[in-house]
Structure formats: C-alpha cells, structure tokens
Amino acid sequence: MVKKVHVLDHPLIQHKLTIIRDKNTGPKEFRELVDEISTLMAYELTRNLALQVVTIETPIKKMNAKKLSGKKIGIVPIMRAGLGMVNGITRMIPVAKVGHIGLYRDPETLKAIEYYVKLPTDIQGRELIVVDPMLATGGSASAAIQALKDRGAVNIKFLCLIAVQEGIDAIHKDHPEVDIFTASIDQGLNDKSYIIPGFGDAGDRLFGTK
What we know:
Layout: E1 5-7, H1 11-21, H2 27-45, E2 51-57, E3 62-68, E4 72-79, H3 86-92, E5 97-98, E6 100-105, E7 112-118, E8 126-131, E9 134-135, H4 139-150, E10 156-159, E11 162-163, H5 165-174, E12 179-182, E13 184-185, E14 188-189, E15 195-196, H6 202-207
Parallel strand pairs: 1-12, 4-5, 4-6, 4-8, 8-10, 9-11, 10-12, 11-13
Antiparallel strand pairs: 2-3, 6-7, 14-15
Helix pairs in contact: 1-2, 2-3
C-alpha cells in the first residue's frame, strides 16, 4: 500500500513548531511562524511536481533546462485558521489560485456544516491542497474534501501543522486516496477534542481571540 501520511521532519520546521507550541508565544509571532512553517512545508509538498525540458539561452549559450510542466495548483484554506497558512504557501507557489471553504460544527449533531465555498472555476484540472493548521477529529477536513469532490475535484492533498491518528483515520475512511502532509502526529485528543499536546486553538492564537 502506498504511504498516504507524510511527516515533514525538517529541522527548521520542527524548531519553529516548538516555538508556536509554547503558550507564551503571542499572536504576532505565532502568525509569523505559521507563515514560515507553511513556506517550508510547501517546499517539501511540491518535491514531486512534474518537470519538462525547455530550451533557453543563457548569456553564454543555448541549453536544455528543466521547468515546471505547467500543472495547475490550487490552495484551499478551511476558514478561519487555514487562512494563516495561505501566504506562506503562495510565497513558494505564487501562480497558485486560492479558494476558500467555510465550515462550522452543528452543536447537536457535531457534523461540519458548509456555509461558504468560493473556488477557482477550473478545479477539475488543478492539484488542490486543502490547508488547516490542525487535524483533530477530521470532521471538518473530510467535509472540506467532500465539498471539493462534489464540485468536480479529483486531485486533492491535505496539509496541516499537527495531526492526531483519529483525524488521519477519519480522512482515510472517507477519502482513502488523499495524501496527508503534517509536521507532527501528536498524542491524541482530550475530552473537548483539542489536540494533546497541540498548541491550543489555532484560530484564536492567530487572530488574538478567545
């Protein structure tokens, strides 16, 4: 079976992740570090992008060189916390288009309810990267992936800073073909479905709310 979970353990990613876990890291530094980690993770995530050979002319002579084959990329943050990862990724992939998915959890059924979706019109032909800092229960992530599939998407990856096995299993139960990229697989969830040890609520820490 092809491995569908990829832990990105680059030393710089792990170093910066440790800092954002610290409860004393404030919103400004938290935002900056999430941005930086997202850039580093995008570098790893795009390692297998297809290349094509093109002919160019340097100041010295003509040569054959490698260039991205033109495969289209789309970034889809799950609002609101996923927004904190967008700039870091588009810094590495500036031609990527950005869609948005808004979800909230029904207090009675605990199911993720879609309230906003705005996507590039050509998602069927794009490699889509769904982003959210945390993969906890997996409910929102799975619902976001399904929302993309319902609109014709066929090539989807999921990128998060931290995950737990419960969330990974939830995504792969519903979407077994989706590759998950994370910087850490944490211990598990507490009785309020927060990741342990985690880094608290990513949205609140990004935007200074409670």
